Predict the 3D structure of the following.
Amino acid sequence: MRFPVAATILALAAACSPARADDGPEKQRTECVSRENTSAYADARTCENQDTKQDSIEDRKRRTLFRSWLGMADRVQASQPDWLSPLATTSGRLKQEFRYDIWDQPSAGGNNTYHLGGNKGLEFITSSRTQLLLGIPTYTLVSPNGRPGAFGDLPLMLKVRIFSAERTEGNYLLTFILATTAPTGSHRYGSGEGVVTPTLAFGKGWKRFNVQSTVGINLPTGSTTKLGRQIPWNTAFQVRARWHLWPELEANCTFFETGRYAGNKQLFLTPGLGFGRFHLAGRSRFSFAAGMQIAATRFHTYDHRLMLSVRVSF
């Protein structure tokens, strides 16, 4: 009986041994899968590195374009007079600047009318001869007993330099300006129609003294009878004094050709004082100006407007 048992055990062992021999191919397949996974991981890392490299190249291109734009803007500003912008007269200079104005004037019923923004905003140079203004709609508030405040129309402006010369080369400029307002304001403080204002700006300097002037015409795109056409003519006399001071006197005149005030004209004398430009950080410079518009004609639509202007150039 022992021999058959031993023979049976040996037979079972022989039958089981081929099954264990299959471990070789399974191990080989596992190693192959492992190598495939490693290759896929390496490919993924390679793609990731390529994406990172591509992003780095694009970032460098963007930085190069940005630096080129700033360099171009520097050259444009260096080839023109370096006068400080007047309070009410639009400067013919091409500028890189953010400007925000605040006006305060007496109004009926013991109120004061505040204009926050002054139709200014972000000015930036787009080419060797052009500059854009993306303005901020002026917010008008009548206090303490006036109507609720609201925003006015959206101001936009294009400047095209015709010619200019820096201070040591003649100190003059001539610029065409196309300003417009989009009728985005409320019914109380918006015009309800677009207004286009083509303007010619010119200026000349003599050492520390300069004269800057603009003349244009307001052309409503609709409701001409209501809004009318006006010819604004502004001139600023300015001196560059010591300690970054810029005293000025402006004559701001408007001729009403058609509309509600047709045949009238108003003239404001605007004494003011500017300060700047003071270094902030990097390319940034800070300046501001303050003054008051005083009516010099019997007819006027407002009087004693206090003006404050804050600018950051870059």
Remarks:
- The longest strand covers residues 265-279.
